[in-house]
Structures are given as structure tokens and as C-alpha cells.
Request: fold
Amino acid sequence: SRSVATWAQDSRAESSACLLSTLPEMGSDHSKAKGVEAQLDHPPVLMGGKCATKRHCAGAAVIDPDVDSSMPGVQPIESAKASRARLHEKLKQQREQQKAEAKAAKARMRENLQQHLAAVKSEQARYHQQVHQHVQQQIADAKRHRALMREQVQRHLEQQMAVAKAKKHQHHRVEQLLEDQMADALKKKDEDKTETLLDVALGQVPGTRLPPKCGHAAGHAASRLLRDAIKSENPKRLKGAMVAAKRLRAAEVPEFAEAVAKYKEVRRLPEGWDLEQMLREGRRCRGRLLAKPDVSDDHRLKALVQLLFDRTQRLVHTRDRRGEDMATRLEVVHVAEVQNEDQWVNYLVRREAISSEVKDAQASDFLAANAETRQALEEAEEAATKENMEVFVSEDLQPGSPLDFINPLSSQVLRLSVPPKDAASVPQGEGRTYALREMLASALPGPPLDDAANEAWLFHGTQPIAAESITTNDFRLDLAGSSAGSLYGRGIYAAENSTKADEYSRADPSTGLYTMLLCRVTLGNLMYTAERDPDPRECEDACLRGDHHAVLGDRRACRGTFREFVVFDEDQIYPNYVVSYRRVPPPPPMDTAK
Reply:
């Protein structure tokens, strides 16, 4: 018994030491510690010297009273329970310490985040305050500036009104003085003094009218000048008298209208030209009679120009288009008539000379131009003069709106514009019926074409700046071929097809519209050529030194494209109209997959 007790005591001490030696290793592994706890929670049960369960602690042994107490490796249960309690207490302390550290870290993070948010809010509030103060300062500065400007403007207006009152008073005194002196000069019939006073009145009295006495003297002087010029039938004297009458502010005298009619007759100017406007604008053109009125409001004329564009269009692509897409149609937007006296008179003189040369030559091989524009004009004349040609216009269409009408004579579309409300019409249903002559002009204004001179209406494509220069000064042969080459020589090229002239037109950057000139061209005796590669020098010599007056290059015959007309004299072509138009692009291709 004493030896068994001694052996049990020694074995218990050895097992405790062994278990305590293993605890530091399991301290870093929580799962191992829990395993030990599980083993300690279920101590082995001694049954007949064997363990009732299979869970054994490391280094533990089963105590059996029948076994020899001197066997090594047997550990008492009480020692294992004590070790388990110590281990459990240690792990509990570690968990509490970790929880406390995590809670403290979380509190510190929350505190730091609250401090950061508070700083951000403070910064935002300070920024919003600064912006508000800046905006308020700008508003205050703007109010002060506006008040200052209003004060300055008001002060300036008051000064101007004071000056105007002083000038008006001064002008009134000057006019009164001029009136008194003019009355005395007229009473004494002193012409020298009258002319001197008129010069003073024209320089001192503003406006378009002179005081009564001065106006009477100016009208008397203008009438005398105009009557003398009318009797002389000299265009130079007529022009000088009309300019003097405008300067004397006496264009209302009856002799002025008579002088205008006489000047048009002498210079053979077209009837529709506004000579008074030409005189007004002539001051900017160094005394030349020149005007370019916009005639787009004449819907009948605009429809006729559109007809010329439509009927002469041929969708044929040439290399002169330079890769640009071809429009399906050209839509006329604006039309301006060129009223240039010098160019017109030079053109008439050259046309008469060519007509006389053609008649004297009586050439058997005389070739008429027969331009496609002639056919379009003949269609317009026939349609506009026919009595029973009527167009129905719905009430919802406003004046100026586009309107397509099928011409029963040609079965082709006429692109017209709805006439103004004051045009003659007949109510019919939910609209009105207009005669076609109220919507389409039968001919272009001006004298008819001279067939003896082989005169034709042709197109010339250009750019807006060049069109302004041509219609003001004239064509320039020294620039011939600078736009698209000179296949038939250095001349002025024109086309019977609007599509061909469109190849050389360029868009206005400000409006996007293209420009084309509709010209009268005297062709005379034509030199015909259908060669693919003609000799340009031969073409020039035939017209400048030979019996021909222009070249007809028939590219339709040799290339299937267009006919081109070339003249080598600026006086053989007159730019009658400047047409601004837009290109209507083809519709986008259909998506066959959809």
C-alpha cells in the first residue's frame, strides 16, 4: 500500500509537469487548447483496469488498483482538472483582452472619422461663405457700374440734346438768313448769287429737302439743266443733268422723269431698270450707273429661273466636279438683277457688230446654238400664256410657300411659289384657284434674244466674291482657266446646263449657298469641235483672227457629258442675274436588311 501511494504521488507530479510543459505550445493555437479542454471535460472512467472511453489526454494513464502502482505514465484526474481550469482561465483572459483592444480601436476609428467629417463640414461652410461673399460683391459692383453707366448715358444724352437744340437754333437762324438772301436774289434775278446761296444751303442744311425759297431755286436750276440735256439727246449731258438734279435735291421736278426716259432710250437700257437707284448707288462706284436689286420677291420671275435650272439639269458626273457628290436638284433661293450701264452698253455694241458680221458673211455653215435654255423658255411662254391653265392652292399654304404643279403640256413638274394674297384668284372649295400666268413669268425681262447674232441664255458657275467682281467690273480674260483649266483656250466658259455650271460653283462660307450667273451671250458664228483633245491655240485663233466669234465644244458627242460654249471677248457676255441656290442632296440609301 505504501509503495502504491508513493508511486501514485510520483506519477501525479510527473504528469502535471508534462501537461504544464505542453500548455505554452498550445497557447498560440486556440483549437488545440479547446481540444485539451474537451479532453479534460470528459476524464476517462476506470473499468476493470481499462478506460471506458477512447479520449485520452496526452501523457495521461488509467489508474487501476489491480495494476502495479509502479507503472510510469499514469496521471491522476485531479491534476488534469486543475490544468484545464488554469488553461480555461488564461484563454478567457486573452479573449477579454482582445475584445477590449478591438473595442478601443473601434472607438478611436469612430472618433477620427467624426473629427474628419467635422473638418470637411467646416471647410465646406467656409468655402460656401466665401463664394456667397464673392457673388454678393460682384452683384454690388454690377449695380454700381450700371448706375454709373446710366448716369453717364443720361448726362451724355442731355449734352447731345443741348447741342442739338443749339444746332437747331443755329440751323434755323442759318435757314432764315438763307431764305431772306435767296428771296432778295430771286427778286433781283441775280443768278450768280442764287447759285452761291444754293451751294451754301446744300452744305449747311441737313436732310433731303431745302427751305422753300432755296428749294424753289434748286428746282428751277435743275429744270433748266434737264431741259437743255433732253434737247441735246447727249447721254453724257443727260447723265450729268440727272446727277446735278439729285445733288440739288430736286429729283421731284417733272423734267427728271423725262430725262430718265430719254437716257434709257438713248443708251437702250432695259425698261425695268431703276435709274434713280443706279444714280444713288453710283456714288459708291465712282460715278458709274450700277445697281443690283434683289428681285426674289417677284415670285413669277423666281419660278421662271427655277424652271431654267430644272429643265437644263442632267445628272452626269465629270472630273471637273472634283469628287463632290452630285445634287438631285438645285433649288433657287435668291435672284438679283444686274443693272450695269457700262457693261450693258458695251454688250449691245458688240452684239450689233457681230449681228452685222454674220449677215454680211451669209455663211452656209452657220450653226445655231439651240441651247437647252431656249426650250425651257419656250415651255414657260406656252404655259403662262395659255388661258385655261389654272393652279389650285390650298388654304393652309402661305404666300411664298413652294408648290409643285404638273404641267399638262410637258407632263413635267413646275416648281412654283404661292402668290401673294392680293393676286387675282377665284375661291374654290378649301382653297383658291390662280391662273398659271400669275405664278410663272412668260419670259425673262429685257429685250428678246437676237437670233441673227446667235444670242442665248447660258450659265456661268463661280464663287460669291468672283460674282461680285464680275457684275461690278466685268469678266477678266487674264484669269481665264484659273478655275477649271482651258481645254478650248483662254476664254470665258458658259454652259447650257445648270448641272455643268454647278461644277465650278463654290459655297458661301457664311450662308452655305452656291452662286451662279445667268448670262446673255452673243455667240455669232460658232466654231464646232467634237474632238476629245482639241488644240486650244487653234480655237483661240479661229475666233480672234478668223471668221468665228465663239467655240462650241461638244463633249456630249465625244464623251457623253455636256456642251460647252467659249467666248474670247468680255463684251460678248453680260451677267444679267446673280442666282443664289442650294444643292439638294440625294436621299440616304435604304437599309435593305431592315
Summary: The chain has a mean pLDDT of 83. The CA atoms of residues 7 and 495 lie 136 Å apart. Residues 77-188 form the longest helix (112 residues). The radius of gyration is 54 Å.
